[in-house]
Amino acid sequence: MAYVVLVIVTLACRLRCGSWFSPAAFVGMVWSFFAGVSLLVVDYPVPGRGLWMLVLLIVAIQLGALIAHELQPQSSISQRPDSTNILRSLISPCRRYGLLCTAVALAGCIYFLFTSLAEFDLPFTPIGVLEVGARWMRLRYDDVVEPWSVRLLITWFHPAGLLGGVLFACSRRRLDRVIGVLTLLPALCYTVLTATRASILLGLTCWLGGLFATLCIQNRGRLALFTARRVTFLMLAAGSMVVMFFSVDAVRDTFYLQDFVLDPHESHLSNYMFGSPAAFADWYAHADVSGAQWGALTFAGEFDLLHLRKRTLGTYLETSNVIGTELTNVYSLFRGLIEDFTVFGAALVAACIGGCAGWVYATSSRNVTGALLWLSAFYATFLFSPLVSLFTFNGAALAWLVAWLVVSSAHRRATLRFSAPFRGGEAPAL
Question: pLDDT digit string (tens) for 135-161?
Fold first, then answer.
């Protein structure tokens, strides 16, 4: 029944808002998919109490976004004449700074590779490179992470991905679109060198956040999802993610096999990709939440950077049984919200997030640059939400800081260019 409620509310939001990319419909679509698949793949009854709480928080986001949408006159969801000019003005800076961030992150990957080969006394061969990832994966279990110098360089793949997504959507030129896709290369390389899936998922969600937000502004809030081109794109992306998942497991196994062997484990794949809704429901059904962390889990990276609370590698130490003998410590964004703000506070925060996103979406034509930043953060956050809060990673905060600097500067230049007074005599008659 909880899942049926989620699906019904999501369909109602889609019909009322007119697009699957409206915040109310988008978050429901993402979680209807993940929760539905999770209910199918787990081999035991999911606790109803936990599932109802998950649905309650999702519906709170949807209702907040829907209320904000209804408070805006429909005439406000339209594109102003200068919106296209503003988006075009982003092409050059997104290309320039996207390439710069990509180059810095790639330099970090190259430096990390050769220092790791020397440290582990490995040859510079394909298997040697893959074994670097396997060895760093084993070190992570002992709470050993990459040197700060490496992490400071590689973290720039987050803004590279975000700017690449915006560039891909803004420009029709083939070269620009190739550059937009290439901004994902550092995240992919870092995934290979550390044998962790989080890197490519982070880069991809930043990229998709920028892409979706830009397309929504271009299409005046009426972006269609189920077109032949977009369905094909989504299927290719999903297939690539599945292949990537198996490949990461194969990289980890090179430590033992001394070879790269793809050995798909269906239960392992299902557990990692779709286990978090069931894990959250099981955790909440037995949880004893007392006190509030006030953002220490939702913004774990920032709290750790400011020395307010030490971040736990992997976020949670305990694990839950999800599928057969498979275990997970991935509980979704919503566990962090509850532990940070209590149940009532989490519902209130969720409604405020939805309300802000719905308002920005409905008024995007009035403030294109602000809408681009806020909507891209919203889309990326909830694409990543089945795993954990996107902003537990400092690189995500860096991505939107860089994007704000780039977009604000481009907007100012575009405003001066297109609003400059006519010089050289009397203005021509229209």
Answer: 888 787 777 778 888 989 999 999 999
Of 68, 96, 105, nearest to 375 (Cα)?
Answer: 68
Helix (H, G, I), strand (E, B) or coil at 320: strand
Show the tokens assigned to 232. Answer: 């094909």
Hey, where are the domains in the chain?
1-71+276-329+331-363, 86-265+369-416
Whole-number Å distance between alpha carbons of 314 and 140 = 10
CA–chain centroid gap for 53, Å, is: 23
Up-side HSE of residue 110: CA atoms within 13 Å toward CB?
7
Q: Which amino acid is at 408?
A: S
Express each pLDDT in 328-364 by its tens digit: 777 889 998 999 999 999 999 999 999 999 999 988 8
**pTM of the shown model:** 0.88
Query: Distance between CA 336 and CA 328 in Å, rounded?
Result: 16
Give ∠ CA 196-268-191 in degrees, rounded to 5: 15
Sequence-separated (6 or more) residues with CB below 8 Å from residue 393: 158, 198, 202, 301
Residue whose entry in the numeric block shows the structure tokens 């698949």:
37
